[in-house]
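Team,

Forwarding the record for the chain on the shared tracking sheet. I've put the sequence and predicted structure together so nobody has to dig through attachments.
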Amino acid sequence: MKEMKTALEKEGLQRHLIVQPVCYHTPELTYDRIGLSGLPEFPFALESRLMSRWDVQKYAREAYDLGIRYIGACRGFEPYRVRAIAEELAKGRGKLPPASEKHGLWGDALRQHTHPWVRVRSL
C-alpha cells in the first residue's frame, strides 16, 4: 500500500485507497513464490501464521496513517480481529464499536489476577 500510494502521488493522482488483508503472516510475492497458496502449510495448517489482535491493530494503524479509510477483512479474520481494528481507530472515528463497555469487566478481572504482570495490563 505504501508503494501504491507513493506511485499515485508521484503521478499527481488523488485516490481513495482501501485494503482488505488476509489475516496470515505471508511471504512477499516473487516470481517463483505465489504468496499464501505457495506456503507449505496451505491450506490445512495455517493456524501458526495467524495474526494476533495486536498485529491487526498495528496493521490498521499503519494503514490509517497512510490515509486509508476503508480497512476491511478477508480470510482468517474473526470478529474479534475486526473489533481490534475498530478499537484501534476509535479515537480517529470518534466512537468505540458497540458493546465496548464489556472491556470494563475484563479490566476488573485483570486487576484481581494473581500475577502482577497480568494486573498491570488492566490499566
